[in-house]
Amino acid sequence: MLKSLQSDLLHEAESKDLKVIIISAEGPVFSSGHDLKELTDEQSPDYHAEVFQTCSEVMMLIQSHPVPVIAMVNGLATAAGCQLVASCDIAVASDKSSFATPGVNVGLFCSTPAVALGRTVPRKVALEMLFTGEPISAQEALLHGLLSKVVPEDQLEEETVRIAKKIASSSRPVVSLGKATFYKQLPQDLRTAYYLTSQTMVDNVALRDGQEGIKAFLQKRKPIWSQ
Amino acid sequence: MLKSLQSDLLHEAESKDLKVIIISAEGPVFSSGHDLKELTDEQSPDYHAEVFQTCSEVMMLIQSHPVPVIAMVNGLATAAGCQLVASCDIAVASDKSSFATPGVNVGLFCSTPAVALGRTVPRKVALEMLFTGEPISAQEALLHGLLSKVVPEDQLEEETVRIAKKIASSSRPVVSLGKATFYKQLPQDLRTAYYLTSQTMVDNVALRDGQEGIKAFLQKRKPIWSQ
Amino acid sequence: MLKSLQSDLLHEAESKDLKVIIISAEGPVFSSGHDLKELTDEQSPDYHAEVFQTCSEVMMLIQSHPVPVIAMVNGLATAAGCQLVASCDIAVASDKSSFATPGVNVGLFCSTPAVALGRTVPRKVALEMLFTGEPISAQEALLHGLLSKVVPEDQLEEETVRIAKKIASSSRPVVSLGKATFYKQLPQDLRTAYYLTSQTMVDNVALRDGQEGIKAFLQKRKPIWSQ
Questions:
Q1: What distances in angstroms separate CA B125 from CA B111, B121, B145, one per listed residue?
Q2: Are C185 and B118 in contact (CB < 8 Å)?
Q3: pLDDT of res. C227
Q4: Mind telling me how many Å the CA of B39 is from chain C's nearest CA?
Q5: Distance of alpha carbon A30 from alpha carbon A2, whole angstroms
Q6: Would you call A115 and B194 a contact, using CB atoms and an 8 Å cutoff?
Q7: C194 touches chain B (CB under 8 A)
C-alpha cells in the first residue's frame, strides 16, 4: 500500500499538467495505518525497519512534492492514517470524521505518527491523543490545526475540488517554488528565513510567470501562465 | 516547595508500579508561583540564581520523567504556577480556572514561565499575557493549546482520573519509550525526526509488550503487560 | 513607505518616554503590501532585492525593538500587510477585518509573508492561505493565533489603547528585557532556553525596578518605576 501510494505520488510529478493532488479513500475509514500482521516477530527486525522507513519516505515525499497535496477525509483516520492527514499540505474533512493515534492500546506507541502530529497540533493535544489513544472529532481537529477545513459530508467533494481548482488556476512553477521555500524556511531562525525568502522573491519576480502575473494585474487582464 | 515537588516527582519514578502522576492543589489557587520574599535584595544573587535554577530543573524533570504527568487545575494558576501547567504533558482544568503571567506588574517579567508558555500557545497570545499580565479564561487556554481539556468543576476529578486510568491501563515501558521519543524528535528537522522515530518503532515492536499487544490484537483478546 | 515605517519605528526608540508603539492605518485597507509597479522588469533585480531586504529589515526591527509593537487592524491586510500584522508582538482587530496572502494570484508567491505567517498560525492554515490566496476572517485569524483579540469596530481604538496603557504602566527596562529574552529563548532547545532565562530572571531581580516592584508588592503600595 505504501509503495503504491509512493508510486502514485511520483507518477507524472514532473509533468507540467499536474498541478495538485487529492488523497482520498473509499468506505467509512480513511486509513487505519499499518497492517499489524506485518509487525509480528514472524517478520525480521530488518523487515520492520523497512516498513517504517518506507512510511517515513512517503510522508516526506508529500512535503517535497512539487505540487500541493490535499487530504480529503470522510471517516476515521488512525495511526499512520492520522499521520498521512497531518503530513498533507491541506486537509479537508467531513464533520463525521475523527482522528486518533491508538497505537499505545496495542503496545505500539505511535512514535512516527507523532512526528507529523507534533508539528501540526499543540503538544498537549498531541500528547493526550498519543497517551490515551482516544479519538478527537473533526471540529476539534480543525480547532487545533490538524485540518484546514470541516464541511458537511455531502459538501466534502465539492469543497475539496473547489480548493484544488483554485490552486490549479495558478502558475505551477510559482506554486512549486513557494511550497519548497515554505518548508525550507520554516525551521530556520528568523534572519536566515528572511534571507532565504527574500532571494526567492527576487527569483519569483524574474520568472516568466512572475512578470506575466504582475503585468496582467497592472493591465487589468487575466494572466496566461506558461504552465 | 520546589524541592518538595522535585522529590515527590522523583519518588518511585523507576518503580514499575508508577504509571502516571497527577499534580493538583487544595484551595482556590492552583499555584501563584514564586514567593517574592525570597527575591528581595536581602538574599544574595547566588540565592536568586538557585531559586530559578531549581524551578527550571523541576519543569524539565516533568518532561524527562518516565511516566506522563497531568496537571489537574481548579482555580488560579499564575507566573511559575502557569509555567507548571504549561510544562505538564496533559492539563485538565475546571471552567472556573484562569491563567496569567503577571510578573511584569511587580517589575519581574515572567521570563522563565515564558519558556513553557511560548512552547504551548501562539506567540501573540503569550506576548499579550506577558506584556499586560492579564489573565485568560480556561476556555481561552483550551482554545490556544495551554490545556488539553476543560470540564465543569464538579467533573474535574472524575475526568482527570478517567484519563489517568486510561494511561495506567497501557504498558509502562511502551508509554515511557513513546514519551521520551516524542520530546526528543520534536525540535529536530523532519528527516532526523523520522530517522529517530523509525528506529524507536522497530525497538518498540521488539519489546515484550510490543509483541504481546500486537498478538493480543490479532487474537482478539486483552493484552497482559509486563508492567 | 517601508523606509518611512522603519524611520518611524526607530524614532526615539531609545527614549525612556517611549513605552509602546501602535501601528494603524486610515481607510478600509490596513495594508495591501508591496506596490507591484516596483516589481516589473522595468526595475533591476538589484532594486527588487533591495525592496524585499528593506521589508524584511522592518519586520525584524519590530521584534528587536525595545518596546512592544501593537497592530491595530480595521479592514483588509494582505500580502506584506498580513506579514506586518503577523510580525507585531500583539495584534488587535475589528471583527470586519480580514487577512490574506494572495500573491499566488498574480504569479508572485507570498514567500516573505510566509515567514511571519508560518510562525504564527498552524502550517495547514498558512498553506491553504498561501496556495489559494483566499482571505480568512478576523474570527478565524484569532482562532488560529494571528490575532491577540477581536472586537467590534467601534471598540477597536478603545481596546487597543487600553492594552497599550496597561503596558505603559509597567517599567520600560523590565518590559524591554522581557521582550528581548522572549524572542531569544523561543528557538532554543529547552535546556538552553531555561539557562538563558534563569540568568535573565536574576538580572531582572537585580534591576532597580525589579527591587522596587517586589518591595512595593510586599509593602502593599504602588511601585514607582525609574522609566
A1: 15, 6, 10
A2: yes
A3: 86
A4: 7
A5: 14
A6: yes
A7: yes
Per residue, the 3-state secondary structure of chain B, as one string, reads: CHHHHHHHHHCCCCCCCCCCEEECCCCCEEECCCCHHHHCCCCCHHHHHHHHHHHHHHHHHHHHCCCCEEEEECCEEECHHHHHHHHCCEEEEECCCEEECHHHHHCCCCHHHHHHHCCCCCHHHHHHHHHHCCCEEHHHHHHCCCCCEEECHHHHHHHHHHHHHHHHCCCHHHHHHHHHHHHHHCCCCHHHHHHHHHHHHHHHHHCHHHHHHHHHHHCCCCCCCCC
Please tell me if residue A53 touches chain B, with a CB cutoff of 8 Å: yes
Taking the CA of residue A45 and the nearest CA in chain C, the distance in Å comes to: 32
| Min Cα separation C107/chain A (Å) | 5
CA–CA separation, C109 and C154 (whole Å): 34
Which value, to the nearest 10 degrees, does the dihedral of the CA atoms of residues B33, B37, B38, B42 take?
160
B neighbour chains, 3+ CB pairs within 8 Å: A, C
CA distance B200 to chain C (A): 21
Q: Is A126 on the interface with B (CB under 8 A)?
A: yes
CB contact (8 A) between residue A48 and residue B205: yes
Asked if A148 lies within 8 A of C127 by C-beta distance, the reply is yes
User: How far from B210 is each of A108, B17, B48, C108, C145, CA to CA, in Å?
Assistant: 6, 19, 46, 50, 39
pLDDT in tens, B100-143: 999 999 999 999 999 999 999 999 999 999 999 999 999 999 99
In A63-182 the beta strands, taken as DSSP E runs, fall at 69-73, 76-78, 90-94, 98-100, 136-137, 149-151
Alpha-carbon distance A175 to B84, whole Å?
42
CB-nearest to C213 from B60, B107, B143 is B107
CA distance B99 to B104: 15
Q: Cell numbers of A120, please? A: 501540526
Tens digit of each residue's pLDDT (9 = 90 or more) over A138-197 = 999 999 999 999 999 999 999 999 999 999 999 999 999 999 999 999 999 999 999 999
Q: Which candidate in C139, C159, C182, C199 is best for mutational testing of the B interface (most B CBs within 10 A)?
A: C182
A2-168 is classed CATH 3.90.226.10: yes
What percent of chain B has pLDDT above 90? 99
What are the residue ranges spanned by the domains of chain B? 2-168, 172-218
pLDDT at A107: 98
CB contact under 8 A, B182 and A134: no
Identify from A19, A22, A202 which residue to disrupt to test chain C contact, counting C C-beta atoms within 10 A and taking the largest count: A202
pLDDT band at A227 (very low <50, low <70, confident <90, very high): confident
Residues of chain C with pLDDT under 70: none
pLDDT digits (tens, 9 = 90+) for A36-62: 999 998 999 999 999 999 999 999 999
What residues does A129 pair with on adjacent strands? none
Of C48, C125, C143, the CB nearest to A202: C48
Q: Supply the ipTM of this predicted assembly.
A: 0.96
The number of beta carbons lying within 10 Å of the beta carbon of residue C217 is 17
Other Cβ atoms closer than 10 A to A137:
15
CB interface of C with B, residues 67-96, below 8 Å: 68, 88-91
Fold (CATH) for B172-218: Lyase 2-enoyl-coa Hydratase; Chain  A, domain 2 (1.10.12)
| Helix, strand, coil % over all residues of chain A, rounded to 5 | 55, 10, 30
* Residue keyed to cell 475546571: B94
